[in-house]
Amino acid sequence: MTMFSRSSAALVLTGALFAAGCSEKPQSPAEKMAAASVPGAPPDGAKDIAAKEATESEVKLSNDLIEFAYAYPREAARIPDLAAWLDNDREKQREALIETAKRDKDDAEKNGFPYHPHSHLQTWKRVASTPRFLSLSAEIDTYMGGAHGMHSFDSLVWDRNHAKRLKPLDLFESGEAFDRAVNDDLCAGVERAKAAKGIDWSRDPDSSFGQCPSASAQTIRLGSTDSKYLDRMTIAIAPYEVGPYAEGSYTINLPVTAAVVHALKDEYQRDFLPIN
Question: pLDDT at position 204, please?
Fold first, then answer.
């Protein structure tokens, strides 16, 4: 009888301890941050935890003077140095917008004209993420009180190996080398895109938009189909570059050929995969 009681007691105690262990709640982000901030914790512990918990960033501001919006994705928010650069860029764009808007509003009031709020709406999105690179692109809509707003583009690449922000063109030997590798394909792509809109592209060099644009002067987006290598590329062309405003913008997908890879700086060539 005594042996049975002791065995039962042991089983009850074991079950209680097991239940207590299972019921322990995981640490909240605030608790993790507090633990990482105590004396003796790794110096970058709190920063690393904050990065892992980061979500997409979106800031909006709208009033009688301006409309402003700036957003970037979670993948960028989780790279502290990149997030810091994006936050700084956001503040620069906001401050520049406010400064210009105040000046134009004062001018409008002095001359008896109506003032229309200025705007800057910018959204960064992930194009690709490979072991080495995070590729982002931005679409930007602005209005500064004229007859119409403007649509433009931006892009960047974050090099994880060197914790460094780059423009896609920085990966190539030079703008000229990039142009030699892609300009023929770009011109053909523009011609096809115009034809899809029912536009016959006059290539007369004396016409306003007869010249094929230089690829290196446009916005370059680098993408990936397998999340391992960069093997996709898009050239984004803003209004007025190859046609009047009414034509709008163009995004031309280009093949990553052997010529493109050959135009890269040596240290980046193995991170690209050309088509066969």
Answer: 79
User: What's the pLDDT at 32?
Assistant: 57
Predicted confidence band at 41 (pLDDT cuts at 50, 70, 90)? low
Fold of 169-269: Actin; Chain A, domain 4 (3.90.640)
Residue 166 and residue 228 in contact, taking contact as beta carbons nearer than 8 Å: no
Residues 252, 195: contact at Cβ < 8 Å? no
What top-level class would CATH report for the domain 46-166?
alpha beta
Structure tokens at 49: 């935890």
Least Cα distance to 122 among 178, 181, 216, 57 occurs for 57
Tell me, yes or no, if the pTM score tops 0.70.
Answer: yes
Q: Phi/psi of residue 59, each to 5°? A: -120, 130
Strand partners, 255: 232
Beta strands in 19-95 (DSSP E): 57-62, 66-72
Mean pLDDT of 55-68: 97
